[in-house]
Every structure is written in C-alpha cells, then in structure tokens.
Design a protein that fits this description.
By secondary structure, this protein is α+β, with helices and mostly antiparallel strands. The chain is built from five helices and seven strands, in the order αβααββαβαβββ.
Length: 231
C-alpha cells in the first residue's frame, strides 16, 4: 500500500463546508418531509370530516324522505279510471254562488265508488278523508285519483281487493314518493328480467324476494336505489 495522503488545510475546509452543506440540505429535506406529512394528515382529517358530513347529509335526506312517505301512508292511488267533469252549467252555477270544489270532490268520490262497487270492491266510505284527482300534464290523460283514508287499515283493506280489477285497466297502488316509486320500478324490472323472484310494497316499503329455493329465498326491504345494483 502506498503512503496515506495527507489532507491539506484547504482540503479539510472544503470537506467541512461540504458536510455543513449536506447537513443543511438534509435539514431542509426533513422540514419539507414534515410539512408534507402535516399536509397529508390535514387532507386525511378533511376527508374524514367530508365523509362524516356526507353521512350526515344522507341521513337527513333519508329522514326527510321517510317523513314525506309517512304523510302518504293512508293513501291509495287509482289510475286508469276516467272521471267525468262537472257540466259547464253546473260549474257556472256553483261559481255564481261562491261554490267551492266540494261538489267536484263529491262527484269524484261518487264516480270512484260507483266503479269499485261495479267490480265487487267493498269500500268503507265513512272512513274516506279525501278523494280527488291529482294534477295531470295533459287534459286528455286519465288523472290519477288519490283516496285518503283516516287510517291505514282501511287503505290495506282496499288494496287487498286489487285483483278484482283485473282486466279493467284500472289499478290501485300505494302512494309512493318519487324515491320509493323509482325503487319499486327498478325492482319490477329486475323481477321481469329474472334477477329476483318477486317484489311488492307494504306500508309504502319496497320488498324483494331473492331467487332460490322457497326455504332459502331471502326477503329484503330496499331503502335505496343503490341496494339493487348488486342484482
């Protein structure tokens, strides 16, 4: 081995300066890394807060939807039945004496009752709270008619007789919110496609029965449209 090289004072100063520079660079990198890690933690915290806000918002939207549906719990919607309007003369006479829409309501209820009786459908008219057509897009369309009972047991009793209307092109259904109506529509599509065994509504909740043997087929309540995406 050759003799060791003796560092000059100038070389020593250069090495010292290099080490000091590297130390400063390492310190700067450490500070940058700490700043980055702090930002990452801040982003995580913000994401967690946003996720919590999203969950809270979804919960509140669900509560509003449930409350809206609850206001319709005693309703039956009849579709496909054409209601005859009041004659022009009777309408003018009622307007001249300051008449309200009471005659229209009575007329609608009378016509609905007459039709249902003709099909053998029994209705407890003393427990009907309201009966009137809903707004329609076109005057030529048959209006959907809402029948509101004083409580849900009378509604249920009427809906159980729905099969008596078979072949009449008139249908009776629960008064679903848009959210639940969309769920029910998709569930019917899945049934038609053979993806599920059956679907129905009870007390304005949408149920589906999965495919499988009778003892294995599960019955589920569907509360959100996304729950049907897996089928």
């Amino acid at each position: 081995m050759g003799p060791k090289k003796v560092l000059s004072a100038e070389d020593g100063d250069d090495i010292k300066k290099s080490l000091e520079f590297m130390t400063e660079e390492i310190s700067a990198v450490k500070m940058q890394m700490k700043a980055i890690l702090d930002l990452v933690e801040e982003v995580k915290a913000l994401r967690s807060q946003n996720a919590e806000k999203d969950r809270r918002l979804a919960y509140l939207e669900s509560r509003v939807a449930d409350l809206e549906q609850h206001t319709r719990i005693n309703d039956v919607i009849i579709t496909g039945l054409r209601i005859k309007p009041r004659s022009y003369a009777r309408a003018v006479a009622a307007d001249n004496v300051g008449g309200s829409g009471e005659e229209d309501v009575n007329s609608t209820e009378l016509q609905v009752g007459t039709f249902l009786r003709s099909k053998g459908v029994e209705v407890d008219y003393n427990n009907i709270e309201a009966c009137h057509p809903l707004p329609r897009k076109n005057d030529s369309d048959k209006p959907a008619i809402i029948v509101r009972f004083v409580n849900r047991k009378y509604k249920t009793a009427l809906l159980k007789q729905g099969k008596k209307l078979k072949g009449s092109d008139v249908f009776m259904n629960e008064h679903l919110t848009k959210k639940n109506a969309d769920i029910a529509r998709k569930a019917r599509y899945l049934k038609k496609s053979g993806k599920i065994q059956n679907t129905w509504t009870t007390n304005c909740k949408v149920f589906i029965k999965l495919n499988g043997a009778p003892e294995q087929a599960r019955v589920l309540v569907i509360r959100n449209l996304e729950e049907l995406d897996k089928y």
